[in-house]
Amino acid sequence: MIFSLYLPPAEIEDAIPLIWWLSGLTCTDDNFSQKGGFQEYAAKHKVAIAIPDTSPRGDNIPDSNDWDLGQGASFYVDATQEPWAENYHMYTYITQELTQIMHDLVPGYSGKESIIGHSMGGHGALMIGLKNSNRFSSISAFAPILNPIQVPWGIKAFNAYLGSEESTWHEWDATSLIKQMDQIPPILITQGTADTFYDVQLQEDAFMKAAQNKPVQYDKKDGYDHSYFTISTFIGQHIAFHVEQLNK
Amino acid sequence: MIFSLYLPPAEIEDAIPLIWWLSGLTCTDDNFSQKGGFQEYAAKHKVAIAIPDTSPRGDNIPDSNDWDLGQGASFYVDATQEPWAENYHMYTYITQELTQIMHDLVPGYSGKESIIGHSMGGHGALMIGLKNSNRFSSISAFAPILNPIQVPWGIKAFNAYLGSEESTWHEWDATSLIKQMDQIPPILITQGTADTFYDVQLQEDAFMKAAQNKPVQYDKKDGYDHSYFTISTFIGQHIAFHVEQLNK
């Protein structure tokens, strides 16, 4: 497994928090590091940024011919179905194996973490953040899938990775998770209205209904699309949002 | 020909200057727009950014099997040799044809221009800026080839595009040009010391000797390499340098 880790310029006495970034369909750990434009803000606020890949990789790893299933499209779940069950344990990889590695790699790690993601990775951030709400100080997402069990991308992936029994899907669905929770970390979501996936894949109604009276800020941005141009425009705002929580 | 043009958010009464960006070997107009991180600064200072491709393109356009000659590697000259002479007129394309198009496309264009480039495009910026020193308010470059007629990349390209008669090369060589000039626009050059091309292709001694007593600032940056990470780190400084001249 390949990953990227950004370390800010820092002094020996600095306590450095860690923000996780989960990318979307088809991405690797390179997309955000090359196009996200976060480095200036991460340097200024002295935070480390962990950027995992979006799935297991390799010639011997199961894949599909579709760009929205298999390599590059893990949905960050632990798969239970063949042929995915052996390798596609991205949830456990990120929350346990890679967590230990990242904590060891950040000099002066403060013990505080937040999580951000984009699209499929936006859902990953919400799902992982909500399932580990004592661990993450805050959660944010750009153009996230909010209710995968109700939209085409999520239904296809969850059928493949988790099987056709829909009752097993809820523990991996951000809308189902937030509905059941009384206390959650603060959440910031940025969604461009010119995003071509917005209407069908990224609809927010069910999530926002389930999130009623919980600290969720949902920002619509007129004219912004699904691209990294949108991310690089607002990443400074997202990092500042997290830093406020991480430094409490 | 494909190009990119960044227009800043602006009011109808704003006068908008234009900064040209010339990319390096193998690039298209996409590299800087996706990885350069300039948008924040161009928006703040209200400047437009013109980003041409690095050569003519297409199945019927001459090319070579080498990444440093042919498509993606024009060196921004007007070729005189076969098979390049018909299509490889990048100097005239940029300074005349595309100039007219860009001026027409920038609402409230102020009539002021500067030019920046990277590597091969860093030389292009210096060469074009020096050959048109009344037109450009300032010139800057990241890791530029400074003396192409003395280094492997340039010797190969100039032989192919201009022929083996070296006397024809000088009018396209930034070091030869600056040597002959008394007045030049202010120049800023940023060069990373960890750039693997630095020693052989990007050596500065001859250029800096020819530039003695002229307004050239040559900044070495310890540990920075030839990549767009270096560019995105210092692009704000370069844009501020140009804006100071453009707003005079």
TrEMBL record, chains A, B:
Q: Which InterPro entries match?
A: AB_hydrolase_fold, Esterase-like, S-formylglutathione_hydrol
Give the enzyme's main class according to its UniProt record, as a single word: hydrolase
Active-site feature positions? S119 (charge relay system), D195 (charge relay system), H226 (charge relay system)
Query: Which GO terms fall under biological process for this protein?
Result: formaldehyde catabolic process
Q: Name one GO molecular function term.
A: S-formylglutathione hydrolase activity
Which Enzyme Commission numbers does its entry carry? Answer: 3.1.2.12
Answer yes or no on keyword Plastid.
no
Query: What are the UniProt keywords, alphabetically?
Result: Hydrolase, Serine esterase
Show the Gene3D superfamilies listed in the entry.
Answer: alpha/beta hydrolase (3.40.50.1820)
- One CC-aspect GO term: cytosol
- Show the catalytic activity: S-formylglutathione + H2O = formate + glutathione + H(+)
Look up the domain of life of the source.
Answer: Bacteria
Q: Into which family does the record put it? A: Belongs to the esterase D family.
Chain's role: Serine hydrolase involved in the detoxification of formaldehyde.
Q: What is this protein called?
A: S-formylglutathione hydrolase
Q: Tell me what organism the protein belongs to.
A: Jeotgalibaca dankookensis
